[in-house]
Amino acid sequence: MQANSSVKTDVVKTFIAEPNFPCVGAKAALNQGHLDIFVAGDLRDSAADEAIIKALQKFAEGVNEDKVFASFCVTFPDTPPLSEPLFESALWQRLQALHDIDRRYSDWDPLVSSDPRSPDFGMSLGGHGFYVVGLHPNASRPARRFGQAALAFNLHSQFEQLKAEGRYDKLRGAISERDAALSGSNNPMLAEHGVVSEAVQYSGRAVGDEWTCPFKAGGFKAGARSS
Q1: Is residue 122 part of a domain?
Q2: Considering its fold, how many domains does the chain have in total?
Q3: Angle at 89 between CA 88 and CA 90, to 5 degrees
Q4: What is the distance in angstroms between the CA of the first residue and the CA of the last residue of the chain?
Q5: Would you say residue 211 lies in a domain?
Q6: H/E stretch holding 177
Q7: pLDDT per residue over 187-204, tens digit each?
């Protein structure tokens, strides 16, 4: 987290702490002090990419079995309000740029697929698989409607740990119920990892079967694995 960004990070904490915010996992990360926040500039700008990669790697390396709930959130306060399609485009542009840097140094996490069409897809950075949640002012789902553009990175290893402990289904059900209560309807894009590609969920925009993810993994360092 950047040293001069304490005021800007408070808005993230306030957003998550709202009583109606549905993601109880994010609430747990906040309450347990396992929420890292990095303030960048404009989501469409590459200036902070190297720093984001380094911060993400440090975050992932610091997560152990005692930190079941941990999240890394990158905010982009200089991003102007974008429509849902434009935000989605900027999100994938940023993830592609981060991957293009990361692939020089890191293998793809073997726990997740690098093919965004695969039901086992997960974004990998620093050798760790992440589920990415996009937030922005014009999101159609209230749970994703945040005052500035932001990307929350949640480790896939945490989901696997919760499944091993028999807690995943209960947690997912609680989040779904709270999201439906906040929005007045079920999220049509919500699906369990391993059923359909999670790539369709990253931006928060409702898309149909014809949607194609623009992300492409490749050019890994020697010995890197792409599944």
Answers
A1: yes
A2: 1
A3: 90
A4: 32
A5: no
A6: helix 168-183
A7: 655 655 557 899 999 999
